[in-house]
Amino acid sequence: MSGLGDYGSLATIFCTGLTGINGIVQAAEYPLPNSLAGVSVLVDGIVAPLLAVADLGPYQQINIQVPVDRTSLTASVTVSQFGQSAQITVEPSLYWSFFFTLPYGPPFFASPGTAAVQHSDYSIVTSEHPARPGEIVIAYGTNPSIRIAVDAPPLGSPSPAFPLAFVLPIVAGGNEDYWGIWVNGKFPETAFFGLAPGLVGVFQVNFRIPADTPDGDAILVAVQARCSSQPPLTACVYYPSISARVPVQAASSQ
Q: What is the pTM of this model?
């Protein structure tokens, strides 16, 4: 398990024509299975671990862990069930996706929305229970295009709690690629960036809400940075993600 390795993010496939699925069929154990309800998925010819398949009436949904590091411009995705298959070519997302929450439902990938963020006691950050300036919180997401982690688990297996699997910058050809986050346009103090322990395909960032953050919705953005140093100059290009909101309120303002 130790050493450097790629770790696949999560993806959702929507399709029609799948049969024999009763509601939601979820994976019951780890490592995640390669087939559920007779459904299997290949990404560029590699079998994808499945989290769940569901029949939503007009269409079906398949949640997978992407089995390869998507650096090419396109990917071939094949869905099969009971000897029947369909293939499509897709363009991978270039954006980190934060998990967003609604008060009446489970997390979903959409924007605009409130990011899935927890306090240090693992309670959820909401408008009624906002983060405090200076507090360390935990944000969750998927799909950073840099997926190099120390102690990354095998595909389909949950990430370890000890040692933690953290993301490393990539240094090649005089460039350094790394991930970070902005809170209201500033880099906050970050304690951890890596795989969320006990989960598959989920990344987490432990960071401190800047002490000068005003009351209201702070804007959280994940940033991929590419920096090149040619003394005496250093240049960085930043690629920000879609933004998410984090409710913040100072205790003194209540």
A: 0.82
